[in-house]
Amino acid sequence: MLLDHCLQVPGRHRVIFLDGPGELLRRFSEAGVTAVPCAGLKSLYTELRRHPGLLNAHNFRAQLFSWLCARRLAMPLVWTQHGFTPRSLKQQFYTWLALRMGRSRTVTRVACVSRGVAELHLSAGVCAGKLRVIPNGLPPRASLPRAVTTPLVGYVGRLSHEKGPDQFLDALLPVLVRRPEAQAVLIGDGPLEDSLAARIQAAGLGRRIHLAGYQTDIAAWLARLSVLVISSRTEGTPMVLLEAMAAGTPVAAFAVGGIPDVVENGEHALLAPPGQSALLGDCVLRLLEDKSLADRLARAARLRQASEYALPQLAVRWQELYRQAQEERAC
């Protein structure tokens, strides 16, 4: 997502990675985007003092360090907020601190990927004038032809609590009973992998529910899926939703975070109330059993992604946000 942003939004981008893996830095460099490794706060401060400019920070650690540096160096600072997952006391403290820092004059603008994230900032006292809602978007790319042979229901994401892979299984187990020819796949890795594998084996479904692990060619998987399921407990604007829309893959999802901003229930996807796994399973069954419905939703979703969630259009909004932040900080 960040690489696409750098390639689509005009400007000279330098991406600073705090303890970023070498493979990721190489990927940016090979695409022509300057990628700089930093080991910590002192290293970041030295880099910013040497190369001043507008700073856009993602994720809590980078935002905390950038706040300290921008305050000292009088740099314009933009935060991109993708959402919060405050399920532990530590994460709840991080959320509280991020929202409190967002109220300060040091943070010039806060770009929120969904209305829900913006509303959370408003409720925490961040002034409306510094908030902008700019959802995630995709660059233009050719989609692969659909290659669905047998019914295959998929989950794509980190195997962690906030992404809800356990809720995916809750929804899918009754579906697989009703549709004995259907199979399912979970694409991704994470801390819940072992417990999910144990649950699948205990249900006797090891041949029908596959743990595919981390994959790089998501487009090829989306082309094979009959339905993509998004079973998250919290979300911003999930990139996999946009990728599925662009690929023409029907979607069943919980109506959490920015998902209802992007797709309307019955128009572009089928949505279930958050946490209602039985209802999410019913959505999956409808899409498997009613091909005309699945095709209609997928066509409408593809058109919506191309018209409203394409990065070239969103780049114009980013340019304006950056311009405002620089001018305001210069005053």
Describe this entry's structure for a reader.
The structure is a single chain. By secondary structure, the protein is α/β, with parallel strands linked by helices. The protein has 2 domains: 2-138 and 311-330, Rossmann fold (3-Layer(aba) Sandwich), CATH 3.40.50; 152-308, Glycogen Phosphorylase B (Rossmann fold), CATH 3.40.50. 48% of the residues lie in helices and 16% in strands. The chain contains 14 helices and 12 strands. The strands form 3 sheets. The protein has a 6-stranded parallel beta sheet, with helices on both faces. Strand 4 (77-81), helix 5 (89-102) and strand 5 (109-112) form a beta-alpha-beta unit. Helix 4 (60-73) packs parallel to helix 5 (89-102).
The second-level CATH architecture of the largest domain is 3-Layer(aba) Sandwich
| Main sheet attributes: strand count, strand direction, barrel closure | 6 strands, parallel
Helical run tally:
14
Strand content: 15-25%
- The structural class is alpha/beta
What is the overall pLDDT average?
Answer: 94
Strands ordered across the widest β-sheet: 9-8-7-10-11-12
Radius of gyration, in Å, reads 21 Å
Order of helices and strands: HEHEHEHEHEHEEHEHEHEHEHEHHH
Shape by Cα distribution:
globular
Terminal CA distance: 32 Å
CATH class of the largest domain: Alpha Beta
CATH level 3 topology of the largest domain: Rossmann fold
The beta-strand count equals 12
CATH superfamily membership of the largest domain:
Glycogen Phosphorylase B
